[in-house]
Specification:
Elements: H1 6-11, E1 34-35, H2 45-57, E2 71-78, E3 81-92, E4 107-108, E5 115-116, H3 121-134, H4 144-147, H5 161-165, H6 177-180, H7 184-193, H8 208-222, H9 226-235, E6 244-245, E7 258-259, E8 265-266, H10 274-278, E9 288-290, H11 292-303, E10 307-308, E11 311-312, H12 316-322, E12 340-341, H13 344-347, E13 355-360, E14 364-369, E15 374-380, H14 393-406, E16 415-418, E17 424-436, E18 442-448, E19 453-459, E20 467-468, E21 474-479, E22 488-500, E23 502-504
Parallel strand pairs: 1-3
Antiparallel strand pairs: 2-3, 2-15, 3-4, 5-9, 6-9, 7-8, 10-11, 12-13, 13-14, 14-15, 16-22, 16-23, 17-20, 17-21, 17-22, 18-19, 18-21
Helix pairs in contact: 2-14, 3-8, 3-9
Length: 507
């Protein structure tokens, strides 16, 4: 639900939660989720309300005449406080690829609707792998063939566990297992037999086959099927009662696609991904279902350093490794052990080196911002009834931006924010600047040499901190060149200010 306007007047007087004061380390291990609101979490409700309104608008026909998704559940968490848990639209709206159900047969979205997480499932598999590392049954730098000899063929002999976790194995993204092979054993064998598409370790290539292999690895070293390992090691100890594979409460699930090839009809309560479906609904790359609340529990567990309500599923060291970028040689594809890192295309203005998460093809998005101890979750059924109606990425960024903009960037005085590319701000006494922008964007600081303005410094990022500037008359020029938006560019200045394309900032 939208936050009452009354809170807007109050929050401005409160000490706000800060975007520009990144937290070090993990949250207190006893931090648990509790119902709250933006005011009590020291957040500005306006950006949150704006994001929720935009999410609702995405359920209406867009430029192509189709809604971006039939329904959605959005959740924001800051410092353990659930500041919003909103629902909109329908869990089931269509009876086939075009026809909407009669009003009385539609199923409204609920806050506890169970969604097909799609590739967010990869995080569960990755955690299960790291748990086996902690049990001394796997070494991430060991060759996968050491544990799965059948994998070590056709050029895969030297692929390591780490390369599977970071998508640097060279394996191709996808094989139509469900169509090309007749049964589960032959489909698994096809993954074990596949030849790398590129030399292992030389490229980043996101691949479902990496995680299917890791699911088999967990089974091999633990003696448990992947679904049992995830239940015993993750969902049961964390009390994630609505999360798992092949959900029993099918009437609570959001419908996904109407499929004719394979001829499955309207899919509800079964995994959408054809390969995961052909593997019995349990696979390393897809198959996990759950609610926004359960996913927030997992997020808070990561923020807490691997523990929640006294139940530890990972050591702090393991969590740190999962959030460490092992893909520095592939700068646009920062990746930890399972977690994607600093991906502005869906993490929006929340993204930084301390931001981790994953998306799912069905229309899901999970962002954990360690720097502000925040979580942004968007669960949609965007493939209902068709996968071809549009990308959900704009909605993912809207949700992440809403939480980022609710956090304050607050100096100890009057501050100005750049609003237009090419805009200029001339300040007699600049004090400090804050820059959090997309790749290609920049803030240029100029000073007068008696004849003209000369560039003296260009800033592309301050890593979410204010930095001092020379306290003499300066001109600041903001240039927008990147595709996405960061938290923005701010200047704290005293004395006379002349602004064009800049505005006074409240937070």
């Amino acid at each position: 639900m939208l936050i009452p306007a009354l809170a807007v007047a109050v929050v401005t007087a409160a000490v706000p939660g800060h975007f520009d004061q990144p937290q070090d380390g993990f949250a207190h291990p006893w931090t648990t989720l509790r119902e709250s609101n933006p005011y009590w979490a020291n957040l500005d409700p306006d950006p949150i309300n704006s994001a929720l309104r935009q999410v609702r608008d995405f359920t209406k026909p867009q430029a192509n005449g189709k809604p971006l998704f039939a329904g959605a559940v959005t959740m924001y968490v800051h410092d353990g406080k659930i500041v919003t848990h909103d629902r909109t639209g329908y869990a089931v709206l269509y009876q086939d690829q075009q026809t909407q159900l009669p009003e009385e047969e539609r199923v409204p979205m609920q806050r506890d609707t169970i969604f097909d997480f799609a590739s967010i499932s990869k995080l569960f598999t990755s955690i299960a792998v790291i748990q086996q590392v902690e049990n001394d049954k796997i070494d991430i730098d060991e060759k996968v063939a050491h544990y799965l000899p059948e994998f070590g063929v056709n050029g895969k002999e030297n692929i390591t566990v780490k390369q599977l976790l970071t998508h640097t194995s060279g394996l191709e993204p996808f094989i139509a297992l469900w169509k090309l092979y007749p049964d589960v054993p032959s489909r698994i064998k096809a993954v074990m037999d596949v030849k790398p598409k590129s030399t292992p370790g030389t490229t980043y290539m996101y691949s479902d086959l990496n995680l299917i292999t890791l699911g088999e690895l967990v089974h091999k070293v633990s003696g448990k099927r992947l679904d049992d390992a995830v239940r015993d090691g993750i969902t049961k100890p964390l009390g994630m009662k609505d999360t798992g594979y092949n959900p029993k409460a099918k009437n609570r699930t959001a419908a996904t696609e109407f499929q004719s090839a394979p001829p499955r009809g309207m899919i509800r309560g079964e995994v959408h991904d054809e390969n995961a479906w052909s593997l019995g609904g349990v696979a390393g790359h897809a198959g996990v279902f759950g609610t926004a609340r359960d996913l927030a529990v997992l997020g808070q567990t990561i923020l807490n350093g691997g523990t929640y309500q006294g139940r530890r599923i990972l050591t702090e060291h393991s969590v740190e490794l999962m959030l460490t970028n092992f893909n520095q040689q592939f700068p646009d594809n920062a990746h930890g052990l399972g977690f994607e890192l600093d991906q502005r295309w869906y993490m929006g203005a929340l993204s930084s080196k301390g931001t981790a998460g994953h998306t799912g093809y069905t229309g899901t998005s999970f962002v954990i911002d360690k720097s502000s101890r925040s979580i942004a979750i968007l669960l949609t059924n965007r493939v209902h009834p068709s996968r071809d109606w549009g990308s959900v990425n704009p909605a993912r960024r809207v949700v992440a931006d809403g939480l980022a903009n609710a956090l304050a960037v607050k100096s100890h005085g009057k501050q100005w924010r750049a609003t237009t590319s090419g805009g200029t701000l001339t300040a007699e006494r600049p004090v400090e600047v804050f820059v959090d922008v997309d790749k290609g964007d920049k803030l240029t600081i100029q000073q007068w040499d008696g004849t003209q303005w000369q560039d003296v410094r260009t800033i592309t990022t301050t890593e979410r901190r204010w930095v001092a500037t020379e306290p003499k008359k300066s001109r600041f020029v903001y240039t927008k060149a990147g595709q996405y938006n960061g938290r923005g560019v701010y200047v704290h200045a005293r004395g006379d200010v002349t602004a064009e394309g800049w505005s006074l900032a409240r937070r």
